[in-house]
Amino acid sequence: MEVTISNIRKEFDRFPALNDVSLKIASGELIALLGPSGSGKTTLLRLIAGLDFPTDGKIFFGEEDASHRSVQERNVGFVFQHYALFRHMTVAENISFGLKVRPSSARPPKAEIRRRVLELLDMVQLGGLEKRYPHQLSGGQRQRVALARAMAIEPHILLLDEPFGALDAKVRKELRRWLREFHDRTGHTTVFVTHDQEEALELADRVVVMSQGRIEQVGSADDVYDRPGSPFVFSFIGESSQLPIEVKGGTVLFQGQPIGISEAEEGAGELFFRPEDVVLVDAPDALFGKVTACRRLAGTRIAEIDIANDGHAPYHVEVEVPLHAPVELRSELRFRPTRWKIFRK
Amino acid sequence: MTNIAAAAPARWRLKQPSIIPGFGLTLGFSLAYLSLIILIPVAGLFWRSAELGWAGFFAILGDERTLRALYVSFGTALAAALVNVVFGTLVAWMLSRYSFPGRKLIDAMVDLPFALPTAVAGIALTTLYAPQGWIGSLFMPFRIAFTPLGIVIALVFIGLPFVVRTVQPVMEEIDREIEEAAATLGANRFQTIRRVLLPGLMPAILTGFALAFARGVGEYGSVIFIAGNIPYVSEIAPLLIVIRLEEFNYAGATAIATIMLIISFLMLLVINLIQAWSRRRYGNA
Amino acid sequence: MPDQLRSSSATSPAFRDPASEGLLAKVLLILLGLAFLGFFLVLPLVSVFVEAFRNGFGDYYEALIEPDAAAAIRLTLLVAAIAVPLNLVFGLAASWAIAKFEFKGKSFLITLIDLPFSISPVISGLVYVLLFGANSALGPFLKSYGVEILFAVPGIVLATVFVTFPFVARELIPLMQDQGTGDEEAALSLGASGWQTFWYVTLPNIKWGLLYGVLLCNARAMGEFGAVSVVSGRIRGLTNTMPLHVEILYNEYNMVAAFAVASLLAFLALVTLALKTFLELRFGAGATGGRH
């Protein structure tokens, strides 16, 4: 189901947690809410679910205004960070809970509930574990029980809060791939919250980058990585370096010296570039500085450089250099960004 | 200080090795003191009881007055424990969930029955619930004090903190996510409480019930003032022990005490089983 | 739809927190709970003081300095002064052995320490009557040497020690188990002796729990009724403790005097509770462990 979030504002004791957030989620889409802690991503998820109520703004499920619907009426599948399984219930009882609490007119017959439970258990690859209690399961298994329980009510939308946060690294990677497959099979509109950019970029159709209660950028993994829309997105996603520059006569100047790249718009700004988007040059108009540290990173080498012209404070940047390049500590390195972005002040 | 453990590493050992000194001294003193004060005197009771023989033992227990006294003690303790399950759980809920003026003060007050001497509680409750008392007069002509109902009142007072203090910490541990999860699955508040929260609290509630019940069965000081102590009607078993002692009927006192002790030990066992069972079933809780 | 989207709502209906009850249910539950506590806790406590001062402060004071009452107060203080230190030493020894070492039969030992909690106070007294009574082996033997246990101070002390036996240990065991053995091992590795370790490392860590355990133990020791009643013989002015004196006065329909002595015991209970609350607010719930 399509979900539309319209001009949502949420305040906790006058502290704004979300500020004028709007977002359209297409039916069947897998969306990641990505941001540092305190960015409002979990708050947004809880507002969609109806676990909290917005101070202002509306939420639509399809054409229908769901803003005033209670959490029980919204029919959302919510997977909690710590799963929130009912520990006195078996796996089967956990999964069937949402069906059993329906009013008798809407409740499926017992045999049907049982059939659905077994079907869901198969779907999350936990067949045969229906009689176990939650504490008898591993973290990854609990996660999938929580997912099956959320799916049992045939939700309009599936919401996951830090779905892999409580798992160790190996299980996390497996489950990530598995969740993607699960989504592709079931086609549910899915929103998940994460602070792990790798997870968001790998898994989601679109990533919503959030910071300080606002949406910074919405786009595909390629969009947010290759075409960051704001300084925050550029520095939050992937590695980057940042330098204050000035554009004069179409030339970019760093501390008054040209660095060999050009830009149309005049004036001061911040230059952002990624370590891999540089080329070593032997020319006077380039960025240059002393190598302060050098480290091997998988197939490449990262050089840390303090760049500064005479009489200016140094700036610390990181650039990727070819393995065979003659880079030595305290030697001088000259380079130019090949891809960059300038954000105006 | 040498101890058994140091000598035989591969074989059975009493304790795990440790660099901390004082094991022999402290454990030895504890066991000696425990034996002198508790174990030997209690064993003496069982010894005296065994001297009665089965026939003598059951002759005393079969006595109508003894049976009625046991019935009164267990019946009123059961009733009071049930009242405390309901209201103790309510009080625990109120203290752990709601904030209202005076909550901290009331939280502290719940321990009053632990700290207030039973005789003081007894005379205070009797004065309140007697026909002329502040509360008793409200219910006239229905009498509370000097009937079995009065015993229940005293035992509710005595048992309340056992239920509250067993249930309250478990309630405070409940993760808010659990209740939110139930709500997202469509459960209304009543269903969430009845199907999710209460079953999770059941082991704690049962333990509190058993503790309150066990304490109530043996309670003496707070009860004898309010009970009226009418033989066959409102005479409790501990009082009958005292009466038998005052008659120098040591055999009678011993037999009643023995059966009460055995039942107390069974209660203790039940409490431990409940806790072991809930640990096994729900994991560490 | 887009038009609809832009018109943001001015007022939102009252939001129901999914993890709480409605206001009305809340208020009703609180009132019900308060009514229950009022009838069972607050009114009994209030009534003790109201009855004690019914005839004014003069009669209250008279009731406390009257010779039999004064003797009961002295005896109660004496009994507590013997019983509490004994159980304090036991509590420290038992919790040291249980919390600092792993050994076989530990949980059984803990169960045994808790035993007096589940024994009727009357039976606690009875076991000593059977042990030292006229038709026991020990009683006449000791009597021939002029040692009186029953119906005398030693019997009262023994019965009091029995019923207050677990209090200090019960407070300290969970507290010391939580603290583990790291601090002690560190002190020993730095060259401290066993006693130094206990005195400078362990004791400061448990002092508040210990204080509360001692206070609870003391409150119960001064207030014990059933067990003491069985062994004391209730000889006025000689083997009458405060709770027993309360009973005698009450049965003589001397209400003001009974409640006057009772009010002292109630005051002691209030002090105990106040200290517990203070310690918990100051040091967190961990400061006073265990149940009683």
TrEMBL record, chain A:
* GO CC terms of this entry: ATP-binding cassette (ABC) transporter complex
* Pfam families, per database record: ABC_tran
Q: Which BP terms does GO give this entry? A: quaternary ammonium group transport
What GO molecular functions are on record for this protein?
A: ABC-type sulfate transporter activity; ATP binding; ATP hydrolysis activity
Q: Which UniProt keywords apply?
A: ATP-binding, Nucleotide-binding, Sulfate transport, Translocase, Transport
Keyword Translocase on entry? yes
Q: CDD domains recorded for this chain?
A: ABC_CysA_sulfate_importer (cd03296)
Q: Can you give the residue ranges of the ABC transporter domain?
A: 3-237
Q: Which domain of life is it from?
A: Bacteria
NCBIfam families xref list = 3a0106s01 (TIGR00968)
Q: Which family does it belong to?
A: Belongs to the ABC transporter superfamily.
What protein is this chain from?
Sulfate transport system ATP-binding protein
User: What is the species of this protein?
Assistant: Xaviernesmea oryzae
From TrEMBL, chain B:
Q: Which residues form the ABC transmembrane type-1 domain?
A: 70-271
Q: Which GO terms describe its cellular component?
A: plasma membrane
Does the keyword field hold Transport? yes
Where found, per UniProt? Answer: Cell membrane
Q: Which residues cross the membrane?
A: 20-47, 67-96, 108-130, 142-164, 196-214, 220-243, 250-274
- Chain coiled-coil ranges: none
Q: Which family does it belong to?
A: Belongs to the binding-protein-dependent transport system permease family. CysTW subfamily.
What is the protein's name according to its record? Sulfate transport system permease protein CysT
Species of provenance: Xaviernesmea oryzae
UniProtKB/TrEMBL annotation, chain C:
Locations listed in the record = Cell inner membrane
Keyword Cell wall biogenesis/degradation in the entry? The reply is no
What keywords does the record list, in alphabetical order?
Answer: Cell inner membrane, Cell membrane, Membrane, Sulfate transport, Transmembrane, Transmembrane helix, Transport
Q: What is its main location?
A: membrane
| Domain ABC transmembrane type-1 per the UniProt entry, residue ranges | 73-274
Role according to the record: Part of the ABC transporter complex CysAWTP (TC 3.A.1.6.1) involved in sulfate/thiosulfate import. Probably responsible for the translocation of the substrate across the membrane.
NCBIfam families to which the protein is assigned, alphabetical: 3a0106s02 (TIGR00969), permease_CysW (TIGR02140)
This chain belongs to the protein called Sulfate transport system permease protein CysW
Provide the species name: Xaviernesmea oryzae
